[in-house]
Design goal:
This protein is of the alpha+beta class and about 325 residues long. The chain is built from 11 helices and 10 strands. The strands form 2 sheets. An 8-stranded antiparallel beta sheet has the order 2-3-4-5-1-8-10-9, with helices on one face. The mean pLDDT is about 95.
Length: about 325
């Protein structure tokens, strides 16, 4: 089965992906920070029994202690688990669907971190899948819930709906126009935040940004999703307008062709250089300058991250070997 990130969804020239994440805790157990390994294993077993009672619903159950560091970091690079969770071992596990669109971290910050990812702008569709899974789990597990403040979570900032809706955007034109600081300040006043692709504190490599809701208390899931979608569509329109102006500039057009030339001929490519160059090529492809599919570029962005390269090829076990493998793979895909 093909992975979800190979697809190009709605608004796919600008929007890479959509994610809905729900945090839940079982009322019968303390939060994970207060659980020992035996307690975490008991929580994991209770959740697993519900998920797998009907032939597993197409899921795989994976314990973090069975993964190498490279495998765990690769999962974080593909946004299937959080970077913090990648370092966890005993008492931590996750559930993954075959196409990797659904992943559920068990005993991360909360007992359950359920996330659904879709290509392009698909907030309602992703939420519908997450909601169905949440209802299935909630029907059998006694969720920690308060009528006044909603779902109880280890971090107070998640109280209420305990939902984070986020959209990954490629914004090279707005970045080059120096607009991102202003936009970040504007959306923060609307209860949203713009960060790098890997969340809080991460740098927006390849001009890829994540915009998500900040407010979870005193607001419904539907309202949060509608607010986020409205702002995302405005950002998409602004990026397209900025890109239309940029590509009129021969200097900027030259940068795109030079970027493609390097990617088609390089023998060594480190991650940062690859992300800078592929961002320019994706801009050119999105605006019709290059006849290269957005789907192919999106797949390269995911598969050429350091740990994912090493996980796919055991001989790419040093930085120089990874750089050579990355350059070879990119050449084969873009030539």
């Amino acid at each position: 089965m093909s992975k979800w990130y190979i697809e190009k969804g709605d608004q796919g020239d600008i929007v890479l992906s959509t994610r809905i994440r729900l945090a839940r805790n079982i009322d019968d157990y303390p939060f994970p920070a207060k659980l020992d390994i035996a307690g975490k294993n008991a929580v994991n077993s209770a959740i697993r029994s519900v998920l797998f009672e009907n032939d597993g619903n197409g899921f795989s159950y994976i314990e973090m202690k069975d993964l190498s560091r490279i495998q765990a970091v690769s999962l974080a690079e593909r946004h299937l688990i959080s970077p913090e969770f990648a370092a966890k071992k005993d008492g931590s596990a996750f559930v993954l669907s075959e196409d990797e669109s659904v992943s559920i971290m068990l005993c991360e910050e909360d007992h359950i971190r359920l996330q659904v990812m879709k290509a392009g702008l698909a907030l309602e569709e992703a939420y519908d899948i997450a909601d169905k899974l949440d209802n299935m789990l909630g029907a059998k597990l006694n969720y920690a819930f308060d009528e006044r403040i909603g779902y109880l979570t280890q971090c107070p900032t998640n109280l209420g709906t305990a939902m984070r809706a986020s959209v990954m955007l490629h914004l090279p034109a707005l970045t080059r126009c120096g607009q991102m600081a202003r936009l970040s300040n504007t959306v923060s006043k609307l209860g949203l935040t713009i960060r790098g692709a890997y969340g809080e504190g991460s740098h927006p490599k390849g001009d890829i940004y994540q915009i998500s809701n900040q407010i979870t208390l005193g607001i419904t899931e539907e309202t949060a999703i509608a607010n986020l979608k409205s702002i995302v569509l405005q950002l998409v329109a602004q990026e397209r307008a900025a890109a239309a102006e940029i590509i009129k500039n021969p200097v900027e057009e030259d940068k795109m062709f030079r970027a493609l030339g390097i990617l088609q001929n390089a023998r060594l490519l480190n991650t940062d250089e690859f992300m800078d160059l592929i961002s320019l090529v994706r801009l050119g492809a999105a605006r019709g300058i290059f006849d290269i599919s957005i789907e192919k570029i999106n797949e390269l962005i995911v598969s050429m991250q350091p740990a994912t390269v090493s996980a796919a090829n055991e001989q790419a076990d040093t930085p120089s070997a990874r750089d050579a493998y990355r350059a070879k793979t990119v050449r084969e895909n873009l030539c």
